Amino acid sequence: MRNTTNNICVSVSSDITDWDTINWYSVEKYVDKQQKRIYEAEVNKDKRKVRNIQRMLTNSRAVLLLAVRRVTEINKGRNTPGPDGFLAKTSKEKGELVDRLSKKNIYNYIPSPTRRIYIPKKNGKKRPLSIPSITDRIYQEIIRIILEPQMEARFEPTSYGFRPKRGVYDAIERIFLNIKGNKWCWVFEGDFKGCFDNLSHDFILKQLKGFTLKGVVERILKAGYLDNNVFNETIKGTPQGGLLSPLLANIALTGLEEYLNITYKEIKHDKNDDEYVTYATKGDYRVVRYADDFVRQDGSLSSF
After folding, report:
1. Angle in degrees, CA 101, 227, 201, rounded to 5
2. Could you say which of 82, 111, 121, 280 would form a disulfide bridge with 265 (CB–CB 3.0 to 4.6 Å)?
3. pTM listed for this prediction
4. How much is the average pLDDT of 239-245?
């Protein structure tokens, strides 16, 4: 072993992952297949099968490879260092990172405090961002890969922010379709003040009952942050800047529709041998949510 300038131990033996020869199509195909199995098992309420697949993926080399690739090559913050200052730029560094992490047990992982920075907002204020180390980002991405399909089976169909294959234009279309028939024409916009900073750890962890990496998620939430090299505890909230935070926020915010007595009825369709599902909404209101921003639509003035 040798030491890099950032005190990251890496292998100098010949047994190193050859990053440039990895078959990414096979890696992504395998992970996608297992994610679909988790989703289907959760829909069918087969908790044992969900846990078994999640445990298998936790120790999967394919998931580790994919997480390292997304963190070091794809995600927007790939060039922003965390508190340790380390970035994996070259193929050699990425391969060594895979080999180093493959020898560690994720269940025993203790995350480092994040690095707090501030970016300007349109209103002149500053938004706090917490930047994790590369290793923390990789473990967060592993957890997201494993947890997201289970949560997708639970999320409401009218939630659009930070979800796979959904975006802001889908939310706009949903609002338009609600208004189109002149029934849900009174629209009220709102958001959750300081949402990411105030989410309840206890509530999030309660929703993760039975999840194989729940303990690691709890340690991530409580890891704290460094602001001008001063350590600060985190007794609530999930850090903006963490790869897992958007998913945890959606988990915490799920239930707004239930509070407003909104329910959904699944309708299965089969058109030209193409099966798909839509949802009929029941209740006195319609809600469209994009992360912590939402609109509530009412039918008439009589609802006031």
Report:
1. 65
2. 280
3. 0.86
4. 90
